[in-house]
Amino acid sequence: SLGEKLQGVFKKLKGQGKISEKDLKTALREVRVALLEADVNYKVVKDFINNVNERALGQEVLESLTPGQQVIKIVNDELTKLMGGFQSKLEISSKPPTIIMMVGLQGSGKTTSAGKLGRLLKKQGRRPLLVACDIYRPAAIKQLQVLGEQLDIPVFSMGNKTSPVDIARAAINHAAYHGNDIVILDTAGRLHIDEALMEELSLIKKQVNPIEILLVVDAMTGQDAVNVAEKFNELLDLTGVVLTKLDGDTRGGAALSVKAVTGKPVKFVGMGEKLDALEPFHPDRMASRILG
Amino acid sequence: VFSGKKIDEELFEELEEVLIQGDVGVNTAIDLVEILRERVKSEKIKEAEQLRQVIVEEIINIMGEETSALNLTPGELNIILIVGVNGVGKTTSIGKLAYKLKSEGKRVMLGAGDTFRAAAIDQLKVWGQRVGVDVISHKEGADPAAVVYDAIQAANARKIDVLIIDTAGRLHTKVNLMEELKKIRRIIDKEASGALKEVLLVLDATTGQNALAQANTFGQAAGVTGVILTKLDGTAKGGVVIGIKAEQNLPVKLVGVGEKMEDLQVFRPQDFVAALFT
Ligand SMILES: Nc1nc2c(ncn2[C@@H]2O[C@H](COP(=O)(O)OP(=O)(O)OP(=O)(O)O)[C@@H](O)[C@H]2O)c(=O)[nH]1
Ligand SMILES: Nc1nc2c(ncn2[C@@H]2O[C@H](COP(=O)(O)OP(=O)(O)OP(=O)(O)O)[C@@H](O)[C@H]2O)c(=O)[nH]1
Ligand SMILES: [Mg+2]
Ligand SMILES: [Mg+2]
Q1: Cα A34 from Cα A40, distance rounded (Å)
Q2: What is the largest CA-CA distance in chain A?
Q3: B255 - beta bridge partners?
Q4: Three-class SS state of B199
Q5: Are the Cβ atoms of B122 and A250 closer than 8 angstroms?
Q6: What pLDDT does B271 receive?
Q7: B272: Cα separation from own chain's centroid
Q8: Which residue of A has its CA nearest to B116?
Q9: Would you state the pLDDT for residue A14?
Q10: Is the pLDDT of residue A210 over 60?
Q11: Per-residue pLDDT tens for A32-62?
Q12: Burial class (CB in 10 A: 0-12, 13-18, 19+), B7
């Protein structure tokens, strides 16, 4: 573990009395490797290590009897702070319906997460409506309908020959008429560099003005996470992130990269394929998971 | 990154950065740059542009310079098992592969081995229709081993050349799901001994270092013979496959470059390495 590695680094220096700035740099190199192995973005790691170095110098780690422990504590604190110090909740509209839009790359877990969110909100006494705005992927609409059936939540669909913008608009009217106070829009997976499909998302946003735009990110995403998050955020001004497939053994450094580059909070984590596997995000737990 | 620079520590750092940003992994990147340093010394390399050739050579050395073909034998039933974690592109890649093999004149059939995920069978059936190949399936919730068994019987009866079997996405950390995969393999080996020619692990190019653990665990459980690297039409480079080839000798056979039927290409090591540095 990183903790053991750092203890090792500082043990080697014990015989020399106080540790120097150079020794601290050696220790931080171990932290850098740990973060890169955890898939935190290269540039995010660079900035993070610089900040930690300054703070460590400022906190007189060099004078400490247990420099290794102090460095780990600083790293952990800084990481937790960066991840977002508090758990973020879903915004509810003062004027219903509350519209939530799920966006992200292909296969990240949008449709499944839409179902999970619907289930969570229904348990809280709300009346969600799931909306099938993916008109491209084979059987995408069917997939959402199956989830809706399993959860006893209505699914609004207009088939795959109507534009997602029109489907979204019609869904809002449908919700108003049927008393659904939450509308969850499931959109097709797309590349952040696909201009036409990214434009489609902008048009949906303009049309129905969602109060929540959630970027669904696969927790095992590597260095590319910053490119994706930046583009989606630039175009849509995200309100939050859902980090999926955290039930695996990925360290999940993408979470740090996405937060660092967009400033937007991770609101939920997906912890399994079943529809009850959605949990609130715990920044401190994520920080220690990333450090490994 | 190579143009007009002089060979110094700063250039080596820049190279390490490019490799890491391509998901090559910090340890593999450090090793590669170390080899580069040694070759610069021993071969007295002076021009930064020459470094490009050196690092391309070193990575090709790992990846292999030939494209790795699918191990299919004409005149008999060949079975391809498709495995991987959730959402990486297994079902879509099967549709693309069926199209490719059919256009090469082969009789292809698909087995809907994902009986778990919502509308997974429907999704594969749409691909079957698009490509014009039969899909063997049961109802959602059926035992995947039973579907595999039926698919093999049907493939033999209809003199199929290639039977491609779809499986449910599963995280490699789920022991019971990996056991299910082993069971599917056993059924294939029992009912069609010698027919299983390829077990292809589908990896998403956007995946980071976790891909190594995936390759390792799936490799041990299912006897993976090659990789399909998908979503290379994005901005991710898929550099993890270098470490996977170095550690586990798993070659990338095919790459996915889009969501349409035709968006499957043979893996070309030269193109892959070149893309790492653009
Ligand atoms: N283990 C695990 N699997 C998940 C999780 N969330 C989603 N999945 C699985 O990931 C796969 C992809 O999920 P989808 O919901 O279809 O993903 P998507 O983003 O809607 O995909 P596209 O619409 O094609 O872009 C499915 O097999 C899901 O069951 C999670 O938190 N944990
Ligand atoms: N851009 C791009 N998208 C791809 C590629 N391959 C697959 N996809 C998309 O990725 C998403 C997931 O593909 P699937 O084939 O459902 O993935 P899967 O591995 O079968 O998913 P599960 O069965 O749920 O585990 C779909 O939206 C596909 O269209 C590719 O090469 N490029
Ligand atoms: Mg979907
Ligand atoms: Mg599938």
Answers
A1: 9
A2: 76
A3: B229, B265
A4: strand
A5: no
A6: 95
A7: 13
A8: A273
A9: 57
A10: yes
A11: 999 999 999 999 999 999 999 998 887 777 7
A12: middle
The CA distance from B174 to the nearest CA of chain A, in Å, is 8
Residue B191 · residue B156 · CB < 8 Å: no
β pairing state of A278-280 and B78-83: unpaired
Please tell me the predicted confidence (pLDDT) of residue A13.
61
Greatest pairwise CA separation for chain B in angstroms: 66
Amino acid identity for residue B87 in this structure: G
Assess whether the C-beta atom of B160 lies below 6 angstroms from ligand 2: no
Q: Tell me: the pLDDT tens digits for B224-237?
A: 999 999 999 999 99
Helix H or strand E encompassing B166: strand B162-167
> Residue B255's pLDDT is what?
98
Please answer whether residues A221 and A251 qualify as being in contact, where contact means their C-beta atoms are separated by less than 8 angstroms: no
Which range in A5-19, A24-38, A64-78, B174-188 is most confidently predicted, on average pLDDT? Answer: B174-188
The DSSP annotation for B12-81 comes to HHHHHHHHHHTT--HHHHHHHHHHHHHHHHHTT--BHHHHHHHHHHHHHHHH-SS-------TTS-EEEE
Task: Report the alpha-carbon distance of residue A23 to residue A15 in Å, rounded.
Answer: 13
Q: What share of residues in chain B are helix, strand, coil (percent, to 5)?
A: 50, 15, 35
pLDDT value, residue A73: 85
Say how far apart CA A203 and CA A41 lie, in whole Å.
Answer: 30
Distance CA A235, CA A238 (A): 8
Least confidently predicted of A163-167, B1-5, B180-184, B240-244: B1-5
Q: Residue B4 has what pLDDT?
A: 74
pLDDT at residue A16 is higher than 60: no
Among B271, B278, B272, B265, residue whose Cα is nearest residue B69: B265
CA–CA gap between residue A217 and residue A229 (Å, rounded): 9
For A107, the token pair is 């296969």
Q: Which residue has the tokens 């709300």?
A: A126
Whether chain B has a CB inside 8 Å of the CB on A221: the answer is yes
Q: Is A251 on the interface with B (CB under 8 A)?
A: yes
